[in-house]
């Protein structure tokens, strides 16, 4: 295990805070849950929380800060969300205006920060069960697709579900459903197995986000609800300001992946 | 099976809407999930939803309406929350001011309705697994206790967790944990097993709400987070207005209990 894998969440976040780590967080503080970030003004927070509540598979909420607070009291009370992520993106009226390693200069007292579960947790469960994760093998980004599955809307927020795809050998598909079902707080069970056209995906080799991966003979494409969904949906409503993590540059919580297992 | 047990949710709600059923809903539309109701002004809705989000065991959210809408679009899009519950309670500044069979005259355009999971669902799972449910055998209300377990606070809302207790034969305690863990959307796994004093309960024979039940030799008291918690917490903040169902007079959803099983 490399030294970054053996770090505690506190050590990893300190490295990040001090600017010693400005790269993606995959592989850091092994076994600890990483999370997506979305920050919105208080005026949009109820609708966004309601959207997440209504669409728990793409939008699994791990923590929500009090308005004006950057402390995620449930998952890492000793962390600071303004500095403890290696790279942030600031969007104004739906346009990316800044990429930055700290958001202390952007933060406003009426902001609410949302931490949402990410697929790293269930991918670890797959790997530990001997189920391959192709984009990790191929060292690229997971392929993501916009589907014809409508999310339940909430106030200003509506849009289609985005899914990620992992090819699974047909004899391991049932096990893949079982092991990922244990983690409903981080996307959980797949939303679709097999024929991509059923959920409105026309070209499996041309994902809408991320990179294409190889599907081998005897493998079935399996689709999970993806954390890109809430960001895409929020962005569509062109909020005056919205802050997210940069892709792959996640927040590292104090909680272990296994703590999210329901059984 | 009696005729009320065989009703569809639509039939049951129509009876209730027409004033033909003004009694508790236990046993109606057998197999369909029943829910607790809490209605609050929009200004308190974010904090309340956040409180539920942070305390999912006592406050399992099944549906939240848009502000001003009485239609629970996820769990019963053909229902009307203003008329489809047999008995409501209206609280003003924390005081019960009215018990009524319709809230059409109280409803305001800025209100948000919350439906929260109730223990009926996991009690059915227990019974179907041959685990006794004492208060059903004794035909009384479940005993409920205020504990020393602090809920995570959110804005105006804070307070202790309320739990319900069911005595379980010691050889069935593990199975009781397993079968109720399948239903995290309706309180899920117990919060405590055994010695009541550990969670701040001094007199197991004198519950804070509901009725005492017999604990037989060889039985262990098992405690689950209780849906009374969010109502008690909201009431403590003395909102200008809050509407709930009357105890036992629940909302009947279109969803089957089994649909909430995570595996």
From TrEMBL, chains A, B:
Any GO molecular function: lyase activity
The record's SUPFAM superfamilies line, in alphabetical order, gives:
PSTPO5379-like
- Keywords annotated in UniProt: Lyase
E.C. designation(s) = 4.2.1.-
Pfam families per UniProt: D-Glu_cyclase
The protein's matches in NCBIfam families, at most eight in alphabetical order, are given as: PRK05463.1
**UniProt cross-references to HAMAP family, sorted A to Z:** Hydro_lyase
Q: What is this protein called?
A: Putative hydro-lyase T458_24105
The record lists the organism as: Brevibacillus panacihumi W25
Record lineage:
Bacteria, Bacillati, Bacillota, Bacilli, Bacillales
